[in-house]
Amino acid sequence: TGAAKAEARRSVKAGGGARMQGFHVTFITDANRKHGHGAWAEWLRQTAKSLGIRGATCLAGYEGYGRDGRIHSEGFVELADRPVMVIMAVAPEQADALFALLEREKANVF
């Protein structure tokens, strides 16, 4: 169960007092979700890098539930069902490129 959330950040002070505009984008998926032959979260992180997005962080969650209402958690034996977040800060043009690529790839985000 993947979900994407974008939070607009109109004007944020960067180091040195410079102003930048962009978005904080968070994708939430399951560790066992695949795209192609690999993990969806890893594919997304590599895709972000290839688009020139300067940083992306993958975080594993302990427990959550998806759009189907089913609980996803880090089990005692099985880690594949745990939630994973991929978080990145992107400029507006990078956000456009990322979401266009997700659409072209038919990457099942939602």
In spatial order, strands of the major sheet run 1-2-8-5
Q: Which outline best applies? A: globular
Q: Structural class of the secondary elements?
A: alpha+beta
**Mean pLDDT across all residues, rounded?**
80
Percentage of residues in helical conformation:
10-25%
For the largest beta-sheet, the strand count, sense and barrel status come to: 4 strands, antiparallel
Poorly predicted regions are: 1-12
According to DSSP, the number of beta strands is: 8
The H/E string reads: EEEEHEEEEH
How many separate helices? 2
- Please state roughly what percent of the residues sit in beta strands, choosing from under 5%, 5-15%, 15-25%, 25-35%, 35-45% or over 45%: 35-45%
Task: Give me the secondary-structure topology.
Elements: E1 3-13, E2 19-30, E3 34-35, E4 38-39, H1 40-50, E5 56-60, E6 63-65, E7 71-73, E8 83-90, H2 92-104
Antiparallel strand pairs: 1-2, 2-8, 3-4, 5-8, 6-7
